[in-house]
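Two proteins were folded this term; both appear here.
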Amino acid sequence: MAEELLVVLTTVDRKETAESIARQLVNNHLAACVQVLGPIRSFYRWKNQLEEAEEWQCLVKTRKSLWPAVLEAIKASHPYELPEIIATSVAEGFDPYLRWAITETQAK
């Protein structure tokens, strides 16, 4: 496949926020698919304190070339002071799915 795909991960504090981010990314052809998982339990250190939180996770499937736009769209909608927004490359996958994801992330 010529175009590389990414899976972008972010977590938010509310299901509604996760669903809003998902809809925005898919509606704007920035993602082929966004899965919202949760609630999940997160443990992390923030400002020198151990924190626990119930969160919702978004798994975003997108093209690598769209990373800057996806990053900005998530940042604009994200409620956290320092949001987790990370991307990993898709090394392998079911070719028909990969082709579908590329097609769905092209501006219509």
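Next, the second protein.
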Amino acid sequence: MEYTHVMNTFEPVYDQYSEVLVLGSIPSVKSREQKFYYGHPQNRFWKVIAAICHETVPVTIDEKKNLLLRNHIAVWDVIAECDIIGASDSSIKNVAANDINRILSCTQIKRIYANGEKAYKLFIKYCRKEGQPDIIRLPSTSPANAAFNLEKLCDSWGEIVKYDDIDGAV
């Protein structure tokens, strides 16, 4: 397969009340086709977020945005554009990063989480700046992460709603 130059055309999802930022690497081919984050039908992101927030799994883009905002969760990707083979994060090269401070400067973000190892490493390499909240690596919700079933993912991801500073969560 050959490299394709991909531009991330999705706007981040956040508002001034967002307290947690979840970062992916770059939208997959399926997500780009659906024009929204975590669009691959086998990706467990929306099931995990719904489960840890005790809500129903959203279907439409508006339902997904509303679920995130109701629970003070912002979502974006580390990469603005790059070269990639298919959906293979391991093939990513020629990275131009998003300006994460765009969100941090106008929200109440207290914690940043990476959806998987690649997003974590890319953030550290291209986006990490002094004064930002620490980034915590969570297991990827990608179907390629077969080591984690839905229950194990929910256990790991549950930490994003286990803090007193998130409205309604304990």
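The CA atoms of residues 82 and 94 lie 5 Å apart. The beta strands are 4-7, 20-24, 73-77, 79-84, 93-97, 111-115, 135-138. These notes refer to the second protein only.
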